[in-house]
Design goal:
about 75% helix; Tmem135; transmembrane helix; mainly alpha; membrane; 19 helices; transmembrane; Transmembrane protein 135 N-terminal domain-containing protein; 3 domains
Length: about 475
Amino acid sequence: MPIKATVPIRIAVQILQAVIARYRGIFVVFVTRVVRSILYLWRKGSKGVYYAFKLIFFQRSLVFTFAIAYIYEVVPKLLKKTLSHFYRFKFDTLHEDLASILVSPFSSDNLAIFLARLVATMNALNPLFVKMLAPLVQEKQVRFASTFMAGLTAALLNFPNFQEERIQKDRFYTFDWTLILATKAIDSVMSTVFSRIIDLPPGTSGFSDLVLCTVAVYLLMDAWFYNPEKLNPSYLKWLNKMSNIDADVLQGMRYLRDGSLNYGPASAGLPNQHHFENVARKYGKDASLGDLTIHDKLPCEVLHQFRSKSCVKHAAYTFFSQFATAFKFYGSVNLFVYTMVKKFYGNPCKIFLRTIRSSLSLTSLSTLHWCCICAVRNYHPHIYDQRFWDVMGPKIGAAVASFGIAFESAIRRSDLLTVIAPKALGTLLDSTPSEKNLWMETIVFSVSFAILVAYARSNPARLRGLIGKGFGYLIK
């Protein structure tokens, strides 16, 4: 062996010896209790095997988790497939399609099977960690610590295989789930820490939710405008559909940001210099309206998609068209919940007002966004060039428009934060499926899952929001 190679090996051996010497007592207790637990089950024979089988596979948490995941996977697909057959009036293959949907959750790469394996492994390991940790931690902390270790170990054992199988179909599937668990875990830990350090006034939670929602909306709107590759493709598709903005207009703004499109005759050779000219031709207008080599400022009517030269009229059009789209979306969702879930139980007027409120919230985002874009482009300070303010317009607009979330109620904002916070966090991270990123994703998922299940079984009040309470109900 070369002399140079022996130096780091010796250092590693010395470090290992020091660690063993320091933690030898804990390690001996750990191994001893594992051996005792195995011998105990062995002596019990068939009764021990039956007890272990019942402990792992017939706990409430496992049954409920699998059932909810199965329903989550199956019901939307059943409705979509059934409606598609009815629209086409073709029912010859309906039974085969429905049978395929009902069976699909039992595949190894499905969420229901993964969660079942995850919870079953955690349930099996939990009693062992209780025995091992009982002499090492305080009595009141045993439940939290043992559940945390069981959840962490179960996730580290099961998540990598699930991640490897799902990433071949959808890169963002495990990435999104990891972000959801991470944001909920951070929320639970932070609320616990702050509650012990300072006595917060009653309205602090609602105010913090408003601030976090505002920041999350800004990050999402900015990414949608300038960095769409950071968003889940399905979510990006939904945003494009709800916004009613021509994709070519958005692309032109990205070209301005990247510098491949600019003002002045000197920019004639840039690769995307004729982009807005092509947009004008697309709408049957004079191509010179989009020629940035002859304009000091791109006419706003090009960004308005030639609906109007007036920014005020375009803002009004955006408001009413966006409200109609949002009202249709939220109305359909609330009507489905009212008829199918609540079985016509509840006040229809409140549901109608809730639909209007949510529609106004979404509408205000687009309207304020475009008002700011036009205002910044036309009335900016006489510093920097026009391209700078064209690029800054959507960013400033996203910051101002994010306050439109205030239209929502405090309860609704809390639930909405559970949905948008993970997506906003994802815009700050690299979602490329490299080996390092996938390894980090596994660690974050495992730690977050362990924190959540530990709180769910020891202090479920720390799990806030609809998803948090639902998670606590499933795992307890």
